[in-house]
């Protein structure tokens, strides 16, 4: 079936979410819709799926104008949608989920379970989905649940399948499988609309790529288009996927951590005798699979978890027992891993969030009296400086997109005199433009002589930012490496591999310029792997 | 635009025959973003809805012509203010029906419905409205007193003989009744802003009234000083109880709801104990559980002469409300309270000492409830008996709930409930409607306020994005 959108416009108040969008999906084609968060992709698909009514424009199916007043109409017309968040009943089996809403009954009025199961099996076989119709959905991995959603759509005779950010929840292996399935669907004559903001995936799977920006189509490209070209279309300028930065010129040691041991609230040791130092003007990247103590390390450095043993010093001053407020005052900035839970107060305005950890400092307060004027004017300046997209500084932060929320945190944390910046997963869930922005700001801080500690689960990010890489595994640092280290080696360290080279590694080579510093660091982690177990 | 945008827009061609899209349906079946909301104008709304990341982050409805429409929409949407007002209206209707159909005269008339249908309805109407009319006359103003005023020969004589006071007597009573309700309501509303649910206004009230009373009759101080010392004593007595709650929560994590409820019992029995022995607080030569009256110097000064009971306690209540508002919205302390109330872990990350603020906010709340106790004993009762705490503890919660946890809301809610209390005696005297009617009205109002969907369904309002006070109820338990 051929699907065509003509001049679709959708407004919310004064905001134009979709601006005269034209899109045409050929039969058996994978059409990717590429755009940053907030570019209007999902709005467009909600229009197509009947969840929203367009203000202008029309939808044509095989050349015939059609109107969808509800998803029911869209489904009847052969459009299926797999939402980012699945619409499945966890305690039902696959077959029950598939048949839900279109239950087939036998003449006796009983559910025709056999037919549904057969349908699922048949589809599963035809497209290589490998789904057991009798499995309980709650027991299935996310990737398989997604296939159940696909089967749901296929059973309803979808000939156009919309996949909204389908890879957001998938592991790389599951993504591979999904791509294989999409290819098979395509070969079977189903058209697929693939929504994503990930360039590589789109290039890998799409036949045609339509790029949306700020609600409008900014271009259509074949998948052979270069990454750079697509990225610049998406964000409207040339994005450098690699952060351009000079070689670090580290100064004195600023943050020094010696034999730090941290237990979580339940008393389990999560960080075990970790030692490292960060110099002014360098970025230390902490790599590692999540859950190996990185979160606890950051929280302990901020004084949010008590230190069991060891020392933390900042410019030679002992901060081991300092409160979070004292650390903030001492010039430590913190970008927490979970920005909605720890970094922002969703029900507070942008302005209040901009001063969340400085509300009692001049000029924002004199004595106990808040200076609302200073808070508002500073917020306005920072919103402009950090390009936070918000209608006003009085807007509740919880209503902003993830990228803008992160910008609010950065604007706050980088808006004062800093010595140390600790950023945990600083770009998680952000789109390309925001990632670039965040990275640039972080490097800028380094160049201003701030000691930067980055914790990230994304190797790309570590490579892009770090001047020195530390790898954490089970609460210990298994090795320090320069950023030129091959990914395989980091992978080995992240999986708990012994730091074979640590003995022979001359300290000076470890971290190029900061080598002498790193010397005390790698040894404890490497020498006593698993000593606590 | 880009290279290939095939169809250069033919001017407004797509008015296809198939889609009569002129008057759009009011609502899509599912609407990812809430309708435009004048959050700034009616800042009460605690929008906690996680917004879909994709749709526009900001909705503003302030198009040049749309302003009036936005306001109307917000009314239709059933935001908190609309819901509150309609809840009061609905409660009055329910109360009226209840009153009418428990009245024997009315029931008798309905027994003869078919012979005299008009009479049945008239009786029901008269009974329901009669009670409200008397309540109004008892709490706001009564035309009879005004008529009597104008029959007097001269203004001077009228004032001297108390005719002018009679006109304002109902309003004075409303304020007198509202005073402890406002103060105790603030004692619940303030900790609520910091995420704590203070069920213990009762125990804090008792703590305050004990100290204020003791200082009232037990010490002798000069005029002017005595009353101030007693008021401060009331604050301290209540604050001490509140501090216990905060300290226990901060140090041990004990949930404030449990602690405050238990302290309520402890303080009730402690009061009874104090009043049971002459060497403690029982009045000399008395067999009743009552203290000696407090000294005249400890009485809160009357504001408008001896005929009206309205006293400085009402001013204290208003000042406290103003103080709470100022504290919450204009100070760093209030910022910390609110930050903790909205997101404790983010507050902690921002360097706010959560535990210390718990202690502080409970201390202040206890002090406010203690002031309510002082206002009662120094303003109207002048002695303390074993039931002086009345229902203030529970009423405080309803006042705070109806007031949406805001200082100004507490004043309004306190005045409303104060008026109900003030009007009840006259209502009972004239129409023989039991005073318990007031409790019913209070309960029904709160019931409706706590269930915004009910009100929306009743009045066919659209769902607002905000959770309303149902959220207040459920959220308070997060501790």
How confident overall, as mean pLDDT of chain A? 84
Which pair has the most extensive contact? A-B, 76 and 62 residues
Structural class of chain A: alpha/beta
Tell me, briefly, the overall form of chain A. Answer: globular
**Range of strand content of chain B:** under 5%
Fraction of residues in helix of chain B: 55-70%
Name the shape of chain B in a single word. globular
- Contiguous helical run count of chain B: 19
- Ends apart, CA distance between termini of chain B: 53 Å
The parts of chain B where pLDDT drops under 50 for at least 5 residues are 1-64, 465-479
Given as residue ranges, the uncertain stretches of chain A (5+ residues, pLDDT < 50) are 501-533
Residue-averaged pLDDT of chain B, rounded? 82
In helices, the fraction of residues of chain A equals 25-40%
Please tally the β strands of chain A and state the result: 22
Strand order of the largest sheet of chain A: 6-7-8-3-9-10
- What's the gyration radius of chain A in Å? 26 Å
Oligomeric form: heterodimer
String of helices and strands of chain B: HHHHHHHHHHHHHHHHHHH
Overall radius of gyration of chain B: 27 Å
The count of strands of chain B amounts to 0
């Amino acid at each position: 079936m051929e699907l065509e959108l003509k001049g679709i416009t959708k407004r919310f108040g004064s905001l134009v979410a979709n601006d005269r969008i034209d899109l045409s999906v050929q039969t058996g084609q994978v059409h990717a819709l590429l755009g940053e968060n907030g570019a209007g992709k999902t709005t467009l698909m909600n229009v197509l799926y009947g969840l929203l009514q367009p203000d202008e424009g029309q939808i044509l199916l095989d050349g015939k104008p059609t109107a969808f007043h509800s998803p029911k109409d869209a489904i009847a017309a052969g459009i299926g949608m797999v939402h980012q968040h699945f619409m499945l009943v966890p305690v039902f089996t696959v077959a029950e989920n598939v048949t839900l809403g279109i239950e087939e009954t036998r003449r006796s009025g009983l559910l025709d379970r056999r037919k549904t199961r057969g349908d699922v099996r048949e589809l599963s076989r035809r497209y290589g989905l490998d789904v057991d119709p009798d499995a309980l959905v709650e027991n299935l991995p996310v990737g398989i649940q997604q296939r159940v959603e696909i089967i749901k759509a296929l059973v309803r005779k979808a000939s156009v399948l919309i996949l909204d950010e389908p890879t957001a929840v998938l592991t790389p292996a599951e993504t591979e499988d999904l791509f294989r399935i999409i290819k098979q669907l395509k070969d079977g004559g189903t058209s697929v609309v693939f929504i994503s903001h990930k360039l590589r995936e789109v290039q890998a799977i799409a036949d045609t790529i339509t790029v949306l920006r700020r609600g409008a189509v900014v271009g259509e490209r074949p998948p052979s288009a270069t990454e750079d070209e697509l990225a610049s279309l998406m964000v409207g300028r040339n994005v450098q996927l690699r952060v351009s930065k000079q070689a670090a010129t580290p100064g004195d040691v600023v943050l020094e951590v010696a034999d730090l041991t941290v237990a979580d609230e339940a008393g389990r040791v999560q960080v075990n005798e970790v030692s490292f130092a960060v110099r002014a003007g360098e970025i230390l990247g902490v790599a590692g699979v999540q859950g190996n103590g990185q979160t606890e390390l950051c929280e302990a450095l901020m004084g949010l978890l008590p230190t069991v043993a060891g020392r933390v010093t900042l410019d030679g001053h002992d901060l081991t027992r300092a409160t979070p407020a004292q650390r903030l005052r001492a010039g430590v900035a913190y970008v927490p891993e979970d920005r909605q839970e720890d970094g922002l107060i969703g029900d507070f305005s942008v302005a209040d969030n901009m001063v969340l950890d400085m509300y009692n400092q001049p000029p924002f307060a004199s004595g106990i009296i808040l200076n609302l004027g200073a808070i508002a004017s500073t917020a306005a300046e920072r919103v402009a400086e950090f390009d936070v997209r918000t209608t006003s500084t009085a807007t509740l932060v919880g209503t902003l997109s993830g990228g803008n929320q992160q910008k609010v945190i950065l604007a706050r944390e980088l808006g004062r005199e800093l010595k140390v910046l600790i950023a945990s997963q600083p770009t998680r869930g952000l789109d390309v433009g925001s990632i670039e922005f965040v990275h640039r700001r972080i490097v800028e801080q380094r160049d201003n002589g701030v000691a930067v500690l980055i914790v990230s689960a994304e190797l790309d990010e570590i490579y892009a930012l770090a001047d020195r890489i530390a790898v954490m595994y089970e609460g210990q640092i298994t090795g320090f490496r320069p950023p030129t280290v091959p990914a395989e080696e980091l992978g080995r360290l992240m999986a708990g591999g012994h730091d074979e080279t640590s003995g022979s590694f001359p300290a000076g080579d470890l971290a190029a310029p900061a080598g002498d510093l790193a010397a005390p660091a790698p040894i404890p982690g490497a020498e006593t792997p698993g000593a606590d177990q | 635009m880009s290279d290939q945008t095939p169809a250069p827009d033919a001017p407004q061609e797509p008015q296809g025959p198939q889609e009569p899209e002129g008057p759009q349906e009011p609502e899509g079946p599912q609407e990812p973003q809430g309708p435009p909301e004048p959050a700034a104008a009616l800042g009460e709304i605690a929008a906690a809805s996680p917004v879909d990341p994709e749709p526009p982050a900001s909705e503003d409805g302030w198009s040049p012509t749309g302003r009036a429409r936005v306001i109307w929409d917000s009314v239709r949407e059933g935001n908190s203010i609309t819901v509150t007002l309609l809840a009061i209206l609905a409660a009055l209707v329910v109360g009226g029906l209840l009153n009418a159909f428990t009245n024997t005269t009315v029931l008798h008339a309905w027994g003869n419905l078919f012979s005299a249908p008009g009479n049945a309805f008239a009786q029901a109407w008269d009974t329901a409205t009669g009670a409200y009319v008397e309540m109004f006359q008892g709490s706001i103003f009564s035309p009879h007193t005004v008529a009597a005023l104008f029959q007097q020969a001269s203004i001077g004589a009228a004032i001297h003989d108390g005719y002018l006071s009679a006109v304002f007597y109902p309003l004075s009573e409303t304020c007198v009744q509202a005073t402890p309700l406002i103060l105790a309501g603030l004692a619940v509303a303030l900790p609520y802003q910091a995420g704590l649910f203070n069920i213990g206004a009762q125990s804090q009230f008792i703590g305050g009234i004990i100290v204020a009373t003791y200082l009232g009759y037990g010490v002798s101080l000069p005029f002017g000083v005595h009353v101030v010392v007693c008021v401060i004593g009331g604050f301290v007595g209540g604050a001490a109880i509140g501090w216990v709650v905060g300290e226990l929560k901060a140090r041990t994590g004990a949930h404030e709801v449990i602690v405050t409820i238990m302290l309520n019992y402890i303080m009730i029995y402690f009061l009874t104990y104090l009043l049971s022995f002459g060497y403690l607080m029982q009045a000399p030569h008395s067999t009743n559980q009552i203290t000696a009256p407090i000294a005249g110097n400890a009485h809160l000064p009357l504001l408008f002469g001896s005929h009206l009971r309205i006293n400085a306690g009402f001013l204290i209540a208003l000042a406290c409300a103003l103080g709470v508002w100022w504290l919450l919205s204009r100070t760093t302390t209030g910022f910390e309270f609110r930050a903790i109330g909205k997101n404790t872990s983010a507050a902690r990350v921002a360097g706010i000492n959560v535990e210390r603020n718990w202690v502080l906010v409970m201390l202040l709340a206890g002090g406010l409830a203690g002031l309510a106790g002082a206002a009662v004993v120094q303003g109207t009762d002048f002695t303390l008996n074993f039931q002086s705490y009345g229902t203030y503890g529970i009423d405080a919660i309803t006042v705070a709930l109806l007031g949406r946890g805001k200082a100004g809301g507490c004043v309004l809610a306190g005045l409303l409930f104060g008026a109900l209390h003030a009007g009840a005696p006259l209502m009972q005297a004239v129409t023989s409607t039991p005073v318990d009617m007031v409790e019913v009205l209070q309960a029904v109002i709160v019931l409706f306020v706590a269930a915004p969907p009910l009100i929306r369904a009743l009045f066919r309002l659209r769902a607002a994005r905000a959770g309303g006070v149902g959220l207040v109820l459920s959220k308070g338990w997060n501790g």
